[in-house]
Structure formats: C-alpha cells, structure tokens
Amino acid sequence: PGVRAMAVMRLPRPYAERAITDPDLRVRIAVVNRVAPKYLMPLTEDPDDYVRQVVARRAPDGLLPAMLHDPDPEVRRIVAGRVATAFLDRFRTDPDPLVRREAACRRPALFVADADVRVRHAVAEAGSPDELRALIDDPEDFIGETARMRLAALMEGA
C-alpha cells in the first residue's frame, strides 16, 4: 500500500509536486516531506490534520499566518511556536489552552491574566520581571511561588 508514497519520496521535486492533491494520505505525507517548502501552500488546506501538522512544521515563515485559524489545535500550537511574534496576539482568545500556552512561552505579557492555570504557569516560567511581579499574588499559590522563585533567580543573576 505504501509503494506509491515511497515512489513519491524518490521522485525529483518537480514531479513530486504534481501529487499534492493525491487522494492517498500516504502519498500526500510523502509529498510534504519531498517538495520544496515554498510549494506547501495548497497543503495548508489538506483535509487531513496530520498532513497540515507536518506542513506547519516545514512551512516557511511567510506561510504560517495562513494557518493561524486552522481547525486543528495541534496545528495552531505548532504555528504559535513558530509564527512571528507580531501574530501571537491572535492566540489570546484561542479556545485551546495548549495553544495559548505555546504562545505565552514566546510572548508572556499577553497571557498574564489568562483564565487557565497552565497558561499562567507558562508565563511564570518564561516571563520578564514585570510579568512575574504581576503573578506573585495569583490566586493559585503554586503560580505565585513559581513567579517569586523565578524573579529571585533573575535578580540574583542580574
């Protein structure tokens, strides 16, 4: 069953690009791994979540904004970890806390007041002194303690 996918993996890139819309999932996964990243745009709308996840990992930076609102939270999480920081504010209202947590690791200030403890904890682990000070009185003791410990470590190293 995977013979066609293996054949795509061995094709010169221009020929592999012709298989972008192949109905066989294995072939499309092989295509994502074979074609030049600049040809991945059609695959950002692939019906299969996994294909889009691989695209999100391989896509050039300029293609990532096209995937900001993907229906799959894993795709959005990958994009949040790679997209330019100017786009991270778009994840503030993402329904998936793991997506927001990924964005918070890169731009903590946007997520200091997030409702989810996992997101605020990510801020406590990655935030600047100002963001850490904002979390010291967090209703969750472990977040406040993490912020205090990290702030002390930052001040000690300064």
Q: Could you describe the 3D structure shown?
A:
The longest helix is centred in the last third of the chain and has 17 residues, at 141-157. The protein has a domain at 88-158. It starts with a helix and ends with a helix. Helix 1 (3-10) runs parallel beside helix 3 and helix 4 (49-58) runs parallel beside helix 5 (73-82). It is an all-alpha fold and 158 residues long. The model has no long low-confidence stretch (mean pLDDT 94). The protein has helices spanning 3-10, 13-16, 25-34, 49-58, 73-82, 97-106, 117-126, 129-135, 141-157. It is built from nine helices and no strands. It is elongated, with a radius of gyration of 20 Å.
Summarize the structure in short.
This protein has helices spanning 3-10, 13-16, 25-34, 49-58, 73-82, 97-106, 117-126, 129-135, 141-157.
Name the shape in a single word. elongated
| Largest sheet report | none
Number of helices: 9
Helix percent band? 40-55%
- From the helix content, strand content and strand pairing, which structural class follows? mainly alpha
Low-confidence stretches: none
What is the rounded Rg? 20 Å
Could you give the order of the helices and strands?
Answer: HHHHHHHHH
**C-alpha end-to-end distance:** 59 Å
